[in-house]
Known about the structure:
The radius of gyration is 17 Å and the shape is globular. By secondary structure, the protein is an alpha+beta fold. It has a single domain, classed as hypothetical protein yedk fold. Helices cover 15% and strands 44% of the residues. Strands 2, 4, 5, 8, 9, 12, 13, 14 and 15 form a nine-stranded mixed β-sheet that branches. It has a five-stranded antiparallel β-sheet with strand order 3-1-10-11-16, with no helix packed on it. Strands 6-7 form a two-stranded antiparallel sheet. The two termini are 21 Å apart. The mean pLDDT is 90. It has helices at residues 11-17, 90-95, 153-158, 172-177, 180-185; strands spanning 5-6, 21-22, 32-33, 38-45, 48-57, 59-64, 70-76, 78-80, 97-102, 104-109, 116-121, 128-137, 141-150, 162-164, 166-167, 195-202.
Amino acid sequence: MCNLYRMTKTVDEIAGLFDAIDAVQGANFGExxxxxxxxxxxxxxxxxxxxxxxxxxxxxxxxKGKGGQPLKPKPVNNARTDKLxxxxxxxxxxxxxxxxxxxxxxxxxxxxGAKTRTWLSLPDTETFAAAGVWRKSDEFGTCYSMVxxxxxxxxxxxxxxxxxxxxxxxxxxxWMSGSPEEAxxxxxxxxxxxxxxxxxxxxxxx
Length: 206
C-alpha cells in the first residue's frame, strides 16, 4: 500500500531529471502528497518529449449510500499489478501509463490509534520513479494511480507486503510507450537496496 509519498523537487528540476517538458509553469502541489490531492506526473506526448504536469492522486470510485443516494467518490490511489487487466484499470494500463516522481514513500506502522510514519527510499537517490496509470474523469479531473506489487527484501521483512512498482531510468520509456506486455514485464519486485527510516511522526495529519 502507499497512501502518502514525498516529492521535494520543483517542476523544472523534474523536467530536467526526466528529459521532459514543463507543461504546468507555476503548478501548485505539496511536498507530501495524499490521496485526492495533486501531485506531479510525467506522461508521454506523441508529438514531443514527455510532459510534466499535475494530476489528482486517485481514480474516482463512485459510491452510493442507503437508498441509492450518491456519496462523495473515493480516490483509488493504488492499482494492484494483478488487477491491471480488470475493467477498472485495463484501458488506462493499455493506453495511458505515466511516471510518478517521488523522493520517498511512507507506510504506517505501530498500534491502532498510534501509528507512525516509516519512510522508504532508494539509497543515494534524491528522486526516482514509480509506475503509474492515468485517465480523465468527471469527478476529479485528470487523475492518476500508483501501480503496486509485492515487496521484496528488507521492505517485505520490516514494513509491508506491498510497495510501489519502482522503475530504473533505462525502463522509463518502455513503461510509458511500450506494449502492454512489455510494461507488464516491468511489474516485478524491486531487487535493489531500500533505505528504511522509522520515525515518531504521527501517521494521521493533525
